[in-house]
Amino acid sequence: xxxxxxxxxxxxxxxxxxxxxxxxxxxxxxxxxxxxxxxxxxxxxxxxxxxxxxxxxxxxxxxxxxxxxxxxxxxxxxxxxxxxxxxxxxxxxxxxxxxxxxxxxxxxxxxxxxxxxxxxxxxxxxxxxxxxxxxxxxxxxxxxxxxxxxxxxxxxxxxxxxxxxxxxxxxxxxxxxxxxxxxxxxxxxxxxxxxxxxxxxxxxxxxxxxxxxxxxxxxxxxxxxxxxxxxxxxxxxxxxxxxxxxxxxxxxxxxxxxxxxxxxxxxxxxxxxxxxxxxxxxxxxxxxxxxxxxxxxxxxxxxxxxxxxxxxxxxxxxxxxxxxxxxxxxxxxxxxxxxxxxxxxxxxxxxxxxxxxxxxxxxxxxxxxxxxxxxxxxxxxxxxxxxxxxxxxxxxxxxxxxxxxxxxxxxxxxxxxxxxxxxxxxxxxxxxxxxxxxxxxxxxx
Length: 445
Ligand code: NAD
Prior knowledge:
Order of helices and strands: HHEEEHEHEHHEHEEHEHEEHEHHHH
Helix content: 40-55%
Oligomer: single chain
Distance between the termini: 52 Å
Structural class: alpha/beta
Largest sheet: 7 strands, mixed
Radius of gyration: 22 Å
Bound molecules: nicotinamide-adenine-dinucleotide
């Protein structure tokens, strides 16, 4: 047997690998569209000076990538991070394209990044960086062209500054829909903050009702492990707990805690608020972030960083179902291993799509200057998440029982390791929709 090359963690390489695997399940696609969809439509790189509080001047670099606009304006978050690269932003913009197409919202995919360390900046410096970045992209952003949102180390305050700057530069019209994830007072949507975590729960609940996991057709009684107890992880933990699941372990950047009888997420949140980490919670056993993903459990929810499940640990994952709350927590090699082992996985573009879905609701509310109550937002979100699970499940089943055959016959369905996984199927559905929309619009000129 020949040894395989070490795993390549380059985000562009990984997203291309996922894309290529999904292509086998796309009904029909013109060859030229394949390379078109693999590349971004437009990359904006901006450099600008910012005056610091001490009077010095820093040169800041930022990116805004629009990957595809077949369905509508670009949509995607802006992250502030010292290590953010254009390649990373490109791969995340692609992910947004697939996610929006999969949940059927009229947006394309985009993403932004600003190279800066928010921990080393004052609020005034952050405001100046945000306003200048927005002004550099004032002709790119727009309620009908490209709509940013929060991402890593940006938040509703950042969105308020972007909205205000854009509004000053484009006076005399309703500019609220130019960004989502705004504060409620400025037209933010009720339920947006909880949307991704709640969406993770809705998707899981509905997936379990399909009876693929015989012992668990609801979350009630299921043992759930969550890596990353931040916004998404903590909200998801509360939703699972309310519905009878046992949260046996959670973690943050400092490490994790385990309790066989289950943890109450409210208590963990209170402890983390007081002590800055979940680690040290009385009565729990401390574990590492490597150990947490390998724990015996029914449902594993990676809700922190990318590449947490990889070729080096995928054969030690003991969950029956992995639900990707984070973006890209599982590598393509790990996908193959989990699939061969019969472990199901709900991919990021499906499982964490609740956030962009409620961002879309915010945009719709802003167009009409309305604000729906949280019950209405959650009911609409639940319905959409159920529908996308149904659509992906039905398509998956079509391939598995052989009603539909893969387009390139690369895949033989009989052996378990060669069954399509839910990522391939969800991605193929998104690619299908975008390819069809592109052709339906007619290639110009
Ligand atoms: P967050 O910053 O609120 O939480 C992240 C959590 O992960 C924190 O508790 C942090 O301590 C923890 N963490 C950091 N490094 C870790 C490590 N090495 N091991 C374990 N935990 C670690 O972020 P969030 O908004 O909850 O986002 C979490 C993930 O979900 C990210 O991958 C993000 O891209 C993805 N996501 C978020 C949204 C959203 O609406 N917030 C939407 C879609 C996807």
